[in-house]
Design brief:
By secondary structure, the chain is mostly helical. The chain has helices spanning 13-71, 74-83. The chain has one domain. The termini are far apart.
Length: 100
């Protein structure tokens, strides 16, 4: 009769640690990759929203600047002056020079 001999494979402590680290890396790297890409995507969305807000505000500023230029024109000032009863008289203009 032949004896059944079983060979047991012993795993060393260093191998066990190496396997655990490898298993952790195989799981953690893809998860962290997805997490980082999600954060990047969210940040890109916020950047685009801020760009849109900046563009809208720039358009508003440009429009207001054009309105200021219209209201500050000499024709508009003369019109407002006539409406409130003022008149332009060149003889009443005095030139003041700043000589030091």
């Amino acid at each position: 009769m032949k004896k059944n001999t079983k060979k047991t494979v012993k795993i060393l402590k260093g191998e066990k640690l190496l396997y655990m680290i490898l298993f952790f890396l195989v799981i953690a790297v893809p998860i962290s990759n997805v997490f980082i890409k999600a954060l990047l995507s969210e940040t890109n969305i916020e950047v685009e929203q801020l760009k849109n807000k900046i563009e809208k505000q720039s358009n508003i500023n440009e429009s207001l600047s054009m309105q200021i230029n219209e209201l500050a024109s000499l024709d508009k000032i003369e019109e407002v002056a006539k409406n409130i009863g003022l008149s332009y008289n060149n003889d009443n203009i005095k030139i003041v020079s700043d000589n030091h």
